[in-house]
């Protein structure tokens, strides 16, 4: 029986050598290119996490009160990963999946004092997912759902309150937490920008610019160009919970800066994005230069991958390309037997369940 005993990363490939008992004659070591590891990851999405238009919350066993879902950041980030792969290789197997996901996605009405059933960040994740679905399958209903999910927050009476009403509470009227999260506001910006790109409606761009300025005012760390995820608004003042540097919100803000620069020809947005991405590279890595998401086990990293990809491929930023290759190399050897990736990019491979947030 073959035992995998060593994996050596080289530029462009992951070379893995194996030992046998008894040992065979020496031969060439098998190699996995980045394309092959991407193909394997797509297969894992399709066969391990995807199920008839839904995403499994965990593998290999059930977790939480639901077995599968098609809303909020865990599921929507898997949809985003599927979109990112399609944007590169146009796989014929992906549009049917997106059609099923679109059919099962959540719908939204309005948020008022009388009825406001959703937190503010959830419909904005869902709006982005609907826009990603639209970019693949091009149906009018996906645009409508993206708009309705965005409008749920944009027209709400229960989120833009408190001492700093230009950023949104996560829970209606702040509830008992008084928490405002950049999960809501960074996704608001991204959802608006995607709708602007799809529809050409200028008001979406204006809304994105206004919210971007507010996000930088309240969530940008005073010492490094990274964004903390939480602000507490007690109705009298607004205070950061410092240095809670989630991959999701920093990735969103990098992507937002790139998209705003492209839409407005204003270079300062791109400067912001590059500064944050370089800070991710400098401050949020382990000794090997591999991204370390240490602050929460349900942070999703797909927005950061997506943003670094934009910097590498569209903006020709070599540090972003190096970051992607370094992290992809580390991740290739940190997978379960089913192919699922765990929370830590450089392993070890998880021994128990893997959630959709981690994957």
> What form results from the Cα inertia axes?
globular
| Percentage beta strand | 5-15%
N-to-C SSE series? EEEHEEEEHHHHEHHEEHHHHE
Low-confidence stretches: 1-26
CA distance, first residue to last residue: 29 Å
Q: How many strands in all?
A: 11
Number of separate helices: 11
The order of strands across the largest sheet is: 1-2-3
Q: Which secondary-structure class do the elements indicate?
A: mainly alpha
Q: Which oligomerization state do the chains in this entry correspond to? A: single chain
Spatial extent as radius of gyration: 21 Å
Largest sheet features: 3 strands, antiparallel
Q: Averaged pLDDT, please?
A: 90
Describe this structure in words.
The chain is mainly alpha-helical and 359 residues long. Helices cover 48% and strands 11% of the residues. It has helices at 34-49, 72-89, 94-104, 121-137, 140-154, 182-199, 202-219, 247-264, 267-283, 302-313, 318-331, and strands spanning 3-10, 13-19, 31-33, 50-51, 54-56, 58-59, 68-69, 179-181, 230-233, 238-241, 354-355.
Which descriptors apply to this entry?
mainly alpha, 359 residues, 11 strands, disordered N terminus
Topology record:
Elements: E1 3-10, E2 13-19, E3 31-33, H1 34-49, E4 50-51, E5 54-56, E6 58-59, E7 68-69, H2 72-89, H3 94-104, H4 121-137, H5 140-154, E8 179-181, H6 182-199, H7 202-219, E9 230-233, E10 238-241, H8 247-264, H9 267-283, H10 302-313, H11 318-331, E11 354-355
Antiparallel strand pairs: 1-2, 2-3, 4-5, 5-7, 6-11, 8-9, 9-10
In short:
Helices cover 48% and strands 11% of the residues.
């Amino acid at each position: 029986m073959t035992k995998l005993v060593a994996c050596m990363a080289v530029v462009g490939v992951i070379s893995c050598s194996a030992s046998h008992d008894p040992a065979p004659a020496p031969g060439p070591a098998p190699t996995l290119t980045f394309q092959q590891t991407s193909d394997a990851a797509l297969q894992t999405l399709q066969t391990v996490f995807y199920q008839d238009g839904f995403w499994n919350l965990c593998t290999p066993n059930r977790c939480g009160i639901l077995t599968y879902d098609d809303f909020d950041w865990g599921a929507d980030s898997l949809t985003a990963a599927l979109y990112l792969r399609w944007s590169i290789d146009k796989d014929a197997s992906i549009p049917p999946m997106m059609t099923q996901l679109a059919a099962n996605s959540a719908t939204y009405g309005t948020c008022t004092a009388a009825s406001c059933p959703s937190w503010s960040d959830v419909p904005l994740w869902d709006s982005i997912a609907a826009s990603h679905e639209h970019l693949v399958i091009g149906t009018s209903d996906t645009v409508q759902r993206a708009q309705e999910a965005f409008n749920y927050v944009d027209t709400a009476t229960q989120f833009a309150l408190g001492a700093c009403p230009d950023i949104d509470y996560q829970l209606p009227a702040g509830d008992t937490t008084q928490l405002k999260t950049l999960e809501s506001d960074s996704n608001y910006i991204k959802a608006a920008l995607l709708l602007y790109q799809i529809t050409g409606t200028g008001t979406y761009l204006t809304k994105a610019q206004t919210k971007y300025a507010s996000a930088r005012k309240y969530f940008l760390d005073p010492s490094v160009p990274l964004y903390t995820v939480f602000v507490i608004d007690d109705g009298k003042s607004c205070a950061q919970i410092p240095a809670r540097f989630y991959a999701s919100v920093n990735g969103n803000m990098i992507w937002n800066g790139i998209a705003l620069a492209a839409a407005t020809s204003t270079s300062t947005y791109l400067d912001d994005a590059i500064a944050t991405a370089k800070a991710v590279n400098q401050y949020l890595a382990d000794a090997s230069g591999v991204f370390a998401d240490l602050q929460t086990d349900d942070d999703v990293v797909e927005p950061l991958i997506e943003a670094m990809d934009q910097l590498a491929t569209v903006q020709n930023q070599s540090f972003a390309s190096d970051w992607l290759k370094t992290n992809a190399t580390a991740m290739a050897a940190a997978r379960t037997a089913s192919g699922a990736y765990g929370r830590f990019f450089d392993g070890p491979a998880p021994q128990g369940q893997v959630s959709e947030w981690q994957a």
